Amino acid sequence: MRIGIYARVSTKDQSCDLQLRDLRAYCAARGFASVREFVDVGESGAKDSRPQLNELMAAARKRLFDAVVVWRFDRFARSTKHLLLALEEFRSLGIQFTSYQENIDTSSPLGQALFTIVSAVAQLERDLIRERVSAGIRNARACGKQLGRPRRVVSDEEVRRLRSEGASLREIAKELGIGYGTVRVRLRGGLDTRETKTQC
Length: 200
What we know:
Number of helices: 8
Oligomer: single chain
């Protein structure tokens, strides 16, 4: 099994030796021969972006290893949300995740249950965001607010007048704030059933 080890300390005067020693011993005890280490030194856990963590995630997306092993959750994720998103991504990639100190291994029955919970929480968050957006739109409409761009009515005569003055189709469209295709339809004398809108 191919393993990606991740370790981190917040300041440059700290060392990752303790984390790496435990994680190397863990991998050796389980016979994991192919191990790649990603170590961030002097990188705060609150940062959105960390060089070695970014490399680990990029390697995971390329399926360069089968499992990620960390010393503790807080060495890996900056927040609960970050952890949930990472676990959900690992689950979708088919990559196992192990936290040494918390004794969580997603290849075990308990770990699989954790993945299920993580997936459910992530789906719940997506559903709540969608519901909040929908509720906001419904409230805006109930208050009489018109959504989208305001309508603009343009007469055929106005289009023909600009054309007779030598304006190109694109110039007419820009002048009147309507689409190029609408200008062509109006000049042909047809009825454009599409609703035209002004530019915001």
